[in-house]
From TrEMBL:
Protein name (Swiss-Prot/TrEMBL): T9SS C-terminal target domain-containing protein
Classification lineage: Bacteria, Pseudomonadati, Bacteroidota, Flavobacteriia, Flavobacteriales
Keywords for this protein: Signal
Provenance organism: Flaviramulus aquimarinus
Secretion signal, residue range per the UniProt entry: 1-20
Amino acid sequence: MKSYTQIVLIFLLATLTAFAQQEKGIIGSNNWLNNWTEFKPNQKDYDEPTKILTGSITESTTLYKREVYLLLGSVFVTNNATLTIEPGTVIIGDFKSEASLTITKGAKIIADGIETDPIVFTSNRSFKRAGDWGGLIILGDAPTNKFGNGSVSSYYTQLNATVYANANYGGENYEDVSGILRYVRIEYAGKRLGNGNYFSGLLLAGVGNETILENIMVSYASGNAFEVWGGSVSMYNMVSYRANSNDYKFNYGSQSNLLNSLAVRSPYVSNSSGSRCLNVMSYDDRDQVDFSKNGTSVVAKNLTFVNDSENLKSEIEMGLINEAVYVGHNASLDMNKSVISGFNPAVILEDKISINQQNLEKIKFSAMYFNNCKGNIFVENNSNNEDLENWYGNSAFFNVYSKSENSETFIDLRHSKRPDFRLRINKIIASNEVDPDLRDN
């Protein structure tokens, strides 16, 4: 009986250990990437446009699956109108006119696709490339930490009184609702702007927490894939694939959650700077913000950040691989149960952040899985990270470290149609100790 009891206890311990490991990174009893995502959008053919969207949409309008829509120039949904998009609808952004779609403050978008029939925004070029068109911008009435309200007028080539009026965002309503984006793909967005900046695939500025954002994929964005300025959003089941710049950037006092989401980077499409999976900032220019207001605060849980590299060591030496996470001054990040695999290093804190208990309690990494990174957590421009390793390496944080190939770490990231980026838990040997080879930078 004693032997039987021991066997049962060992089995339960193994089961609980496996379950605990499985909780790290993106989770789900099934691969939730199936059916609605597309990892080879250049091989997808869409019908020729049958309708044109241009100028301002001032009345509530529905886009139907039976049509294919050409987005021409800067298109605005204004006058508190609602743009409803049926599941399966395709909207094609025009390359020559630098097409973009902006949902202005007070207006709404209801783009509620379904798993087997997602809504697609893509490029109209026969040979599609990152930055072919602008992107999708949603402006809301939630607070930011800027002085006064903000404007995205710099994103549009033709400036006039109408554009300026439609470009404003921000207010006092954290519960502002801008609509629904669910089962949506945004491909080849991020057009370069005349001022040297880029559109984001999806820009959320002053968007409130009653807005529903679930199962959204941004692929091959030339600028940031997802960018959030201020507001208070919760984003579930996001996918950023091969963005040139940041996968997820939060700025200007955003109070947001990023949950069960994926970023896959390629060293050969990333910009030389500012290309991170997660970039948490409170400002770009400190003169623009009011420090009496809340700085950016992000809760990030069950994320998987993976660098899709064939030769990690060589590509690190060539300077093609950056850090996965960057945290700026006056910003807070609570990141847990997440996977960071194949970066140089895993995390960098801005050099304006003083390393003391007060600041480190605002930047949390717990129950993390750091895999195959050249170094883990550093302060910018400082190669000595002993204090940080001692802090985050404390067993109380339950962080684990490993050095495994991606093929051994994830279930099937090489599958051409249905990759699976959940952890392959039966192949992982993890510990609480920092691998000295990973510590070396």
